[in-house]
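Many introductory courses stop at the sequence. We go one step further.
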Amino acid sequence: MDAHTIIVAATAIAVGIIFGAAGLGSAIGWGLITSKTIEGITRQPEMRPQLLVNTFIFAGLMESFPFIILAFGFWFLFANPFLG
């Protein structure tokens, strides 16, 4: 196998791992955001509207992370800087 094939194969494996980690991180983030919101609503029900607004703001910020990782992953796949 030549060096080009090895680099392409290693990049494909690495990008798959990166995509999996980004998905797992996003799922954990959603779980933490949701659990803390429910916990806050349980403690102070009158704060429900403010907590929900904050939840959706932080959830939107947290969801941007996998899309940024997706862009970097596709950059490594299709415009691989390691191939020269």
